[in-house]
Design a protein that fits this description.
208 residues; alpha+beta; 5-stranded antiparallel β-sheet; 44% helix
C-alpha cells in the first residue's frame, strides 16, 4: 500500500512516521505484573496477541498510549475544523498568513449533490477566489484578504496522535452518523493503521 491515500476529489491522508509497534503494547502492559521483558525480537507470540485482544476487550487502554503515529492530511477546511475538535491530537496547519498557495476547493460528487448544484458551487468558488486575488493585488495583507475564502477550501496539516486516542477517533468518525466527508478520511486512516500496527488494529476491529 502507498503511504498516501487519495480522499475526496483533491484530498489525501499520508503516513509520515510512527513510534513503537504492536510488541511495545504488551511490553508496557506487563510492567503491571513486573513481567515486562524488552526484546529485540519484535515477533508477537500467541500469548502476546491474546493479551492485545484482552486489553481492548476489557478497556485497559493505557498501554496503547505508548504508540504514536504522525499523518499528513489534505482536507477541506470544514473537515479540518471537525477533526480539530479532537483535542487529544497535536496539529500544525498551513497558514495563508505566511504563504501563497494554489487554492483548491472541494466539490461534492454527483452522489452528494445535483449537477446544477455543482455548477452553482463552482460559480461561488470562482467569485470568492477572484475577490481574494484582487485584494492581494490591492496590497491588502494576506491575513485580511483570506476572510473571503470559504470552508470548502482545502488546507493541509500534520497530526500526531497516540493509538488509544486514534481508536477513539475512529470509533466516532467511522460511525454511520458521522458526516460522509470526514468518514472517508477515517476509512483511509484505518487502512494505514492496519499496515503500521496490524495486530493492534485487528484486535481493535474484533473487540470494539
Amino acid at each position: 500500500m502507498s503511504n498516501k491515500i487519495k480522499v475526496l476529489d483533491n484530498g489525501f491522508v499520508e503516513f509520515v512516521d510512527k513510534m513503537g509497534d504492536d510488541k511495545r503494547v504488551v511490553e508496557t502492559a506487563r510492567i503491571s505484573y513486573n513481567k515486562s521483558v524488552l526484546s529485540n525480537d519484535r515477533t508477537l507470540t500467541k500469548q502476546d496477541i491474546s493479551l492485545l485482544n484482552s486489553l481492548i476487550k476489557n478497556g485497559h487502554l493505557t498501554p496503547f498510549e505508548h504508540l504514536t503515529i504522525t499523518l499528513h492530511i489534505k482536507a477541506p477546511i470544514f473537515v479540518a475544523r471537525q477533526w480539530m475538535r479532537h483535542r487529544t491530537q497535536s496539529y500544525s496547519e498551513l497558514s495563508l498568513r505566511y504563504t501563497n498557495t494554489d487554492m483548491e476547493f472541494y466539490v461534492p460528487n454527483k452522489d452528494r449533490v445535483s449537477e446544477e448544484d455543482i455548477e452553482e458551487i463552482n460559480k461561488v468558488y470562482a467569485i470568492v477566489y477572484k475577490t481574494y486575488k484582487q485584494l492581494i493585488d490591492n496590497n491588502v495583507p494576506k491575513e485580511v484578504a483570506r476572510i473571503v475564502l470559504p470552508v470548502g477550501q482545502y488546507t493541509e496539516f500534520y497530526t500526531t496522535i497516540n493509538i488509544r486516542n486514534l481508536m477513539h477517533f475512529l470509533d466516532l468518525r467511522l460511525d454511520k452518523s458521522a458526516q460522509y466527508e470526514i468518514r472517508v478520511y477515517a476509512e483511509a486512516i484505518l487502512k494505514i493503521f492496519e499496515v503500521q500496527f496490524p495486530y493492534t488494529c485487528q484486535a481493535y476491529l474484533v473487540n470494539k
